[in-house]
Amino acid sequence: MKIPAWHVCLPFILTFSATACAPLGKQPPQAQAVTAAQLGLSEQHTAAPVSPTWWTQLNDATLNQLIDTALAHSPNLAATAARIRQAQAGVRLTGSQSGIQAALSADGAGLYHESLSHPDSLAERIFGNDIQYGRIQLKARWTWDFWGQHHSELSAALGKKRALAYELAQAKLLLVQAVSAQYMQLQTLYAQQKLLQQRLDIKQQQEVLIHDRITAGLMPPSQLYPVQNAQHQLQSAIRDLNDKAEHIRHALAALSGQSPEALREPWLPENIGKLPPAPVHALTADLLGKRADLAAQREAVLSRGHLIDAAKAKFYPNVEIKALAGLSVLSIGDLPHLRTLLGGILPGVTLPVFTSGALKANLAQKQAEYDEQIARYNQSVYQSLKEAADALGSYQAATERIVMQQQTIKLGKKSVAAARDRTRAGLDTHISVLNAEDEVLQAQSQLLNLQLQQRVGWVSLNVAFGGGFSAEQSVSGSLNAQTITD
Fold first, then answer.
1. Element (H, E) at 272
2. How far apart are CA 250 and CA 252, in angstroms?
3. Which one of 167, 202, 331, 480 is at 20 to 30 Å from 376 when CA atoms are compared?
4. Quick one: pLDDT at residue 176?
5. Helix ranges, 136-223 (H)
6. Cα distance between residue 453 and residue 272, in whole Å
7. Measuring CA to CA, which residue among 203, 230, 142, 212 is closest to residue 435?
8. Strands across the sheet with 101-112, in order?
9. Residue 313 neighbours by CB distance under 10 Å
10. 483 forms bridges with which residues in the sheet?
11. What was the pLDDT predicted at 395?
């Protein structure tokens, strides 16, 4: 019995395909991500997670409305959301390449033919000497993902999309932080303006009293100059605060996606309210899993790792099957006949024997990109720890100084009461009472600055410890690999 030639060649082809792999060569060690143990972080968890809407704990309706407006109209958030949609389209495109690729095409032509040796009549030349050609083809191609190249590329695309979703969560958090900090500064400026106006009233009262005593010959005229100079300084300070408040209004309008005119008076921030307790009191290991920016960096690292796997898969032989089915005729009227059918299946094997140089260069590039991403992640970890430590230290320092400043104000109020007692006893003038009151107002102004530092530190603490970030909620609505390939 005669054995077909392809039966004889098939074992040799398979053996050659199995051994025709491009050599990977010596691979450099990959960079490693820093761990919580290496950073010396405590393994214990924070007492309670940060609320996803932590700013509402301030019970400030005006601030809540500003933040809602900012989240709804921010161009930066809209741009990041558009990047996520682009990544989602990329995921679908990558996923579609792992299935069967099919295309339907049709073409045809009409050719006029005339024999010069046997000319026909005009009607025959027009209707009888045409060659009509037509073809309809269905082409299909399928690549066997035996080494997982397409799967790795799809996983990398999905990781990129998840990273962008986490970046969007981080962008929202930073926007809330910026709006909150600016709003709190504006609250402090208005409170400072009230204190400056009270101090200016005191200086004006002192000017009247000193002027009367100068007129009575009890004081020299030079005693009036320091009081008048203080009034000019206070008036200048009030104008400076008004200018700063105007700039902060403009900044808040830009952050919330509004025109500068939207936050002009009579729009005013609410009075400074009670500050909620701090969400955390120490740096712990779970900080690394609570931040959206670190989650985005980790997804980017994983995505780079999948691209390395895809690059390695290209070193191995790949099997591709092509199929063709259709109709091809020289006369359109013959289309229904079976003799016009055509079809075929063509298997193919890609052997990366002579492209090892290009494959090694591509793999080296992917590995370098992975190492770069690891370095970026490590730097983000160090930066996040710095931000958390700074926020914790600033909040705790401001809290301690507030207690001391409140004691100073209490002592100042006692001095005011003592000055009034001396005035009623005829041992001193009312000018001393006004000086003591002015010192209390200055101490209250310093207290406002410390309270601003504490409130901004409270905001920074919530942000530095994740701001209630949830990976599941950030990627909700995203497609998984199974959905895409289906």
1. none
2. 5
3. 480
4. 96
5. 149-215
6. 13
7. 203
8. 101-112, 130-144, 318-329, 341-350
9. 18
10. none
11. 93
CA distance 244 to 452: 15
Q: Is residue 441 part of a domain?
A: yes
Q: Does residue 99 fall inside a structural domain?
A: yes
The Cα–Cα gap between 335 and 9 comes to: 38
Name the strand (E) or helix (H) holding 68.
helix 61-73
Q: Is 80 part of a structural domain of the chain? A: yes
Alpha-carbon separation of residue 408 from 402, 415, 436 (angstroms): 10, 11, 12
**Per-residue pLDDT at 19:** 52
Neighbours of 392 (CB within 10 A): 20
C-alpha dist (Å) from residue 390 to 24, 170, 416, 450, 483: 46, 19, 38, 16, 44
**Domain limits for position 179:** 32-110+129-481
C-beta separation of 46 from 286 below 8 A: yes
Sign of torsion over alpha carbons 75, 76, 77, 81: positive
3-state secondary structure of 109: strand
In this prediction, the residues of the chain whose per-residue pLDDT falls under 70 are 1-27, 42-48, 108-134, 327-340, 353-354, 474-486
Taking CA atoms, 227 is separated from 16, 210, 221, 431, 443, in Å, by 101, 9, 11, 11, 19
Question: CA 192 → CA 242, 302, 451, 475, distances in Å?
Answer: 10, 51, 12, 44
Name the token pair of 371. 């190492």
pLDDT for 484: 34
- Rounded-to-integer distance, Cα 63 and Cα 185, Å: 12
Q: Which residues contact 112 (CB under 8 A, 6 or more apart)?
A: 125, 129, 130, 131
Cβ-contact 288, 35 below 8 angstroms: no
- Overall number of domains in the chain: 1
> Residue 448 is which amino acid?
L
How far apart, in whole angstroms, are the C-alpha atoms of residue 85 and residue 96? 17
Residue keyed to tokens 């003592």: 418
Q: List the Cα angle 250/270/184 in 5-degree steps.
A: 55
Q: Which tokens sit at 13?
A: 């082809």
CA angle, 23 then 28 then 34, to 5°:
140
Q: What is the DSSP letter of 187?
A: H
Distance between CA atoms of residues 439 and 421, nearest Å: 17
Give the CATH number of the domain where residue 399 resides: 1.20.1600.10
* Beta-bridge mates of residue 328: 135
Query: For residue 252, what pLDDT is reported?
Result: 93
